Amino acid sequence: MTGEKKIEKWNRISGFILLIIGVMTAWGSTSLSMGKFKHPGPGFLPFGLGICLIILSLILIFKSWKKEISPTPLWFQRTWLRPLLGVAILIFYAIVIEQLGFILTTFIFLLIWMALIERLKWKTILSISVGTTIVLYLIFAFFLEVPLPKGFLKLG
Amino acid sequence: MSDLLGMFQGLMNGFGIAFTLNNLMFALLGAFLGTIVGILPGLGPAATISLLLPLSFKIGSPVTSIIMMAGIFYGAMYGGSTTSILVNIPGEAASVVTCIDGYQMALKGRAGPALGISAIGSFIAGTLGVIGLTFVAPPLAEFALKFGPPEYFSLTILGLLMATLLGGTSILKGLIMIVLGLLLGSVGLDPISGAIRFTWGFFMLQEGVDFVTLAMGLFGIGEILYNLEKELKTELVTKKISHLWPTLKDWGESKWAIVRGSFIGFFIGILPGGGAVISSLVSYAVEKKVSKHPEEFGKGAIQGVAGPESANNSAASASFIPLLTLGIPGNAAIAMIFAALLIQGVQPGPFLITERPDVFWGVVASMYVGNAMLLVLNLPMVGMWVQLLRVPYAILAPIIVLFCCIGVYSVRNTVFDIWVMGIFGVIGYLFRKFGFEPGPMILAFVLGPLLERSLRQALLISAGSPWIFFNRPISGSLMGVLLLFILFQIFITLRKKWSKRS
Question: Do B254 and B309 touch, CB atoms closer than 8 A?
Answer without folding.
Answer: no
